[in-house]
Amino acid sequence: MSSTSSSQFQQLEKLGEGTYATVYKGRNRQLGTLVALKEINLDSEEGTPSTAIREISLMKELRHENIVTLYDVIHTENKLTLVFEYMDEDLKKYMDAYGYKNGALDPQVVKSFMFQLLKGIAFCHDNRVLHRDLKPQNLLISHKGALKLGDFGLARAFGIPVNTFSNEVVTLWYRSPDVLLGSRNYSTSIDMWSAGCILAEMFTGKPLFPGSSNEDQLMKIFRIMGTPNERTWPGVSSYPNYKSNFDVFIPQDLRILIPSLDNVALNLLQGLLQMRPDMRFSARQALNHPWMDEYNRGGKSPFDVFQRQQQPQQSQAHNSQDPQNIQNIQNPQNLENPQNPENPQQQPLQQQQLQQQQLQSNQQQQQQQQQQQTQAYGYQM
């Protein structure tokens, strides 16, 4: 713990309040720099919340350009204050502010954010840390277009052999099918499923699988990705929550749901949204995917797209566009399809089915989003 006094920081405004913490926008009085102050009231009997202990211990070790920096920890008799670098907004708020009419982002912005997200995840996994709660609200965005992972309150270190963890992790919409089916023996693949969900959401502005309960979440996944069986996912029937009478769905063509996907981006998304955890792309595989070649081999910076944009002024122009018109789907290229070769061939959803699913999910999304309002810019409370 630091000997720094909390009086060194000036509270400017409250960003949000949660179960055990309140987050403020603040300023370092000596340096004049903006910070985020996460104040945790200490219970005389309970002591420091385990999530705070976990977050502090991990974030002191994880120093990376795509992970929010924990500057200091100030401990007083009845309060613990975590001093983070200040970020302007989270990805969800960014999509709402600068996306098209549905919140969808320009494909080049999606690529920049995805590249930075994968770099942050890869660094965590290389250092044997699972984030376990990746979602747009926990990804912080600066005014320069930098994306950083925040909220490590559910993160865990992992070792070999893989530890047995709780299956109560990851916000429902971004939770992998193996965790939903009751798996406790999981590893980095759960973060990669979440990354795939985030990639799809950046393209459309809406969650891909907006379930209202554990079982409803599974059904929303099965309707799009197909219902697994022992042929397509050996061992799936042994999961605690697996049911032999699950409704049977065949895999759908993701390009029907996400028309702005080009074929290379589609290949990456399919690799991240593999039902079988052992088939999912790792962070390093995704980072080195051909869709990222312009950053890995072309010498481009992920910030180039933001330097060309005057975002607030251009947002009205963006809002008048439809993401479906941004990029027409060309004939499929001969990319290797990462889907399980034993899966049935993907079939497109009918437009009527899509409309019915959308109507059903809109109300659920509104309810879920209202519940998330107490979270401030990824500084978990």
Automatic annotation (TrEMBL):
For this protein, the Enzyme Commission number is 2.7.11.22
Q: Where is the composition biased (Low complexity)?
A: 307-373
**Which one GO biological process term can you cite for this protein?**
filamentous growth
Pinpoint the Protein kinase domain residues.
9-292
UniProt cross-references to SMART domains, sorted A to Z: S_TKc (SM00220)
What keywords were assigned to this record? ATP-binding, Kinase, Nucleotide-binding, Serine/threonine-protein kinase, Transferase
**Biological role stated in the UniProt entry:** When phosphate concentrations are high it phosphorylates the PHO4 transcription factor thus establishing repression.
| Descriptive protein name | Negative regulator of the PHO system
Gene assigned in the entry: PHO85
